[in-house]
Write a structure and sequence with these properties.
heterodimer; A: mainly alpha; two-stranded antiparallel sheet; 16 helices; globular; B: two-stranded antiparallel ribbon; 11 helices; about 75% helix
């Protein structure tokens, strides 16, 4: 809904891995200035999308808003990851580590920086979280640019496991709060907003901005260069592109998005603790990206909705079933999640977005005949 | 100096367990070019089966070990045949997600059967009282010796299987070039299933060995996740393609973690693993024992 992906009508066979479809003459005639300026089109989509989201937030109950906020913040991280994995072709099993950096930056800044400006201060804090996690992502990216495939997967996996443990390092544990984490003191919402709606607004605004930014990056020269690197590194470097620089850049952008998601997570859950960043988080992000359709921003949205809501739905179902065994009730969400992931990969190999594009292609070819 | 020796010895025995997990991952990587993220959950599940037999039914340690390896064999084979085979031709990440799905599913299933409430202890194979040297006690017990010897035997058996038997030759052919192997009459699909089954049996052995080293090891999640991560780290250090590399990677990791835990701080073991991994990969981006591949444009 808030995504700005508009493949041309003449390209029904667009693979899910492609973020943009070729623009066609017909579409640019039909929409005039709007289709000539990608930036303008994306901005319009983002504004309309955000307006609709605001409406949705007003309509939803408090409980539904507590579900919407995690979806939106997961979307930030998943969209960043889809740029890294889908566009630049580098796998990361460790984007949860960047969320960890963003969350702790946010929590520590809010703890030590007292300001009367409330929500303005919060925006500055999020900006700082993005900067710090991007820098960290840059360092990881420099190391990662030398690694390929499973080696990069192994290194990022070890990062996702290792980094959250530094909260227990003897010289840092009193600052980082050990296993209990740092309590987040979030500013009060502005007058007229209750706390749950305000958190949803923050998360949705961030998600829309991230999607708008990434859609523009994907359509830009950088996006094209990244795709070139993904498809063939040697050809890309022969064509004059600096492969390592682009790969590091993809890590920086991806880590920045994840850092923002981590900051939002800290503000929504009011605590930044190592338990919030288990291996399952990083792997869940990757699952969201692949499930939605690798490389597609719309897919990142679908995937985030599914990985966030699926455990809750199955929890609801299992409590409705009224089984008198905690062992079984507590584990139904895990079992369902696992089965859905495996079955989805067998049923829709190109993800939800791939399946949708295929359906659209079929429908269009049927219409034309 | 004595402390250093002790820490090294205890690192060797842990490292051998990482090496066994790494071997399981390497075998699957060589056969199907897939990193089996479900390995940790698979060996958790087989260890639970063995624990159930040993604690609830009083079955002998060695029978439990055999049952665990057999059930690993079945789970691994079934995973390849019914889950991995259908996605093998698809995008490579899909296989990764399928193994993740299996990983989560097995964790949930184990929780359903045995409960998540408490971690259980598994009996070690041999005494865990360290050997005495003079008046001092080594951090190396008969159980550690048993771990080292069983992994060494495992490596020798795998070497013989792959290099000295017709089945091993066919398995290598199927992994090396499936198309040509198929044309020459090798039943590639069946051998890949056998490869996964064998790897999972190796993983099951690693699970039993690991569970005996610490009380409270057997639980649906937790320590076995770490075993997967360290096993994968060891495999990557060794170069993913090389069984010998997996063993050496496991030893390096085990000894380094043991030393760092005691000389620096034992709360950030995962961080050391990451640092060691990055240090090795910065020098050799494809691990210590990987062959360099020529690339064509």
């Amino acid at each position: 809904m808030s995504d700005a992906k508009t493949p041309g009508p003449d390209a029904p066979e667009t693979p899910a891995g492609a973020l943009i479809a070729p623009k066609t003459a017909t579409s640019s005639d039909r929409f005039g200035a709007l289709s000539r300026s990608t930036l303008l089109r994306h901005t319009l989509f983002a504004l309309v999308g955000f307006g609709l989201l605001l409406l949705l937030i007003r309509l939803l109950s408090d409980y539904r808003n507590t579900q919407l906020a995690p979806i939106a913040l997961t979307t930030c991280a998943a969209a960043g990851l889809t740029l890294l994995v889908g566009l630049s072709g580098q796998i990361s099993l460790g984007n949860g580590a960047f969320m960890f950096v963003g969350a702790y930056t946010t929590a520590l800044l809010l703890e030590h920086w007292h300001s009367a400006h409330g929500n303005l201060q919060l925006i500055a804090v999020f900006a700082a979280a993005i900067v710090v996690s991007s820098l960290f992502g840059g360092i990881v990216g420099v190391a990662g640019a030398r690694l390929r495939g499973p080696y990069l997967a192994g290194a990022t996996l070890a990062l996702a496991i290792g980094l959250p443990q530094i909260v227990n390092y003897q010289h840092l544990s009193d600052k980082l709060g050990g296993n209990n984490g740092v309590v987040v003191i979030a500013p009060n919402p502005p007058a007229g907003w209750d706390i749950y709606r305000w958190r949803s607004v923050l998360c949705c605004a961030a998600a829309v901005i991230v999607l708008w930014f990434l859609a523009n990056v994907a359509h830009s020269r950088i996006g094209r260069s990244l795709r070139a690197v993904r498809d063939d590194e040697i050809s890309a470097s022969l064509a004059g592109l600096s492969v390592p620089r682009l790969q590091v850049l993809a890590f920086v952008i991806s880590a920045g998005c994840a850092g923002l998601a981590g900051g939002l997570l800290a503000v929504v859950s009011l605590v930044a603790g190592p338990g919030a960043f288990p291996l399952a988080l990083s792997l869940g992000l990757l699952a969201a990206v692949v499930f939605g359709g690798l490389g597609s921003l719309a897919g990142a949205v679908y995937g985030s909705i599914v990985v966030t809501l699926l455990p809750q739905w199955s929890q609801d179902v299992s409590s409705a079933l009224n089984i008198h065994s905690d062992k079984i009730t507590n584990n139904i969400p895990l079992v369902v999640y696992g089965v859905v992931l495996a079955v989805a990969m067998l049923a829709v190999p190109n993800g939800v977005q791939g399946a949708l594009l295929r359906l659209r292609g079929l429908a269009l070819s049927r219409l034309r005949r | 100096m004595f402390k250093f020796l002790n820490l090294t010895l205890s690192g060797v025995s842990n490292g051998m367990i990482y090496a066994a997990v790494a071997l399981a991952l390497v075998m699957i990587w060589r056969a199907t070019r897939i990193v089996n993220f479900a390995q940790g959950a698979m060996l958790m599940f087989t260890t639970f089966i063995a624990w159930d037999l040993a604690q609830q039914h009083g079955v002998n340690y060695w029978v439990c070990l055999v049952v665990a390896m057999l059930s690993g064999f079945v789970i691994g084979g079934a995973a390849e045949r019914f889950l991995v085979r259908p996605v093998e031709t698809g995008p490579p990440l899909n296989a990764v997600i399928v193994t993740l799905g299996l990983f989560i599913f097995l964790q949930g299933l184990a929780g359903m059967i045995w409960g998540n409430a408490q971690a259980h202890s598994y009996p070690p194979g041999f005494s865990i009282l360290g050997y005495q040297v003079g008046k001092r006690t080594l951090l190396f017990a008969p159980n550690d010796l048993y771990i080292v010897i069983s992994v060494v035997i495992l490596v020798v058996l795998l070497y013989l299987l792959f290099n000295r038997t017709p089945v091993g030759l066919r398995m290598r052919a199927a992994a090396f070039n499936p198309e040509v192997a198929r044309l020459l009459g090798v039943r590639v699909g069946r051998l890949l299933t056998v490869g996964w089954a064998l790897a999972a049996a190796v993983g099951a052995l690693a699970g039993i060995l690991a569970a005996g080293t610490q009380p409270g090891y057997v639980a649906p999640s937790g320590l076995f996740d770490a075993l997967l991560v360290y096993g994968f780290t060891a495999a990557v250090i060794g170069g993913l393609d090389s069984p010998l590399g997996a063993v050496i990677g496991g030893l390096i990791l085990g000894v380094a973690l043991s030393l760092a835990d005691n000389y620096i701080d034992n709360n950030i073991e995962g961080m050391y693993a990451f640092i060691i991994l990055i240090a090795v990969l910065m020098v050799r981006p494809n691990g210590l024992f990987a062959r360099q591949h020529a690339r064509r444009v």
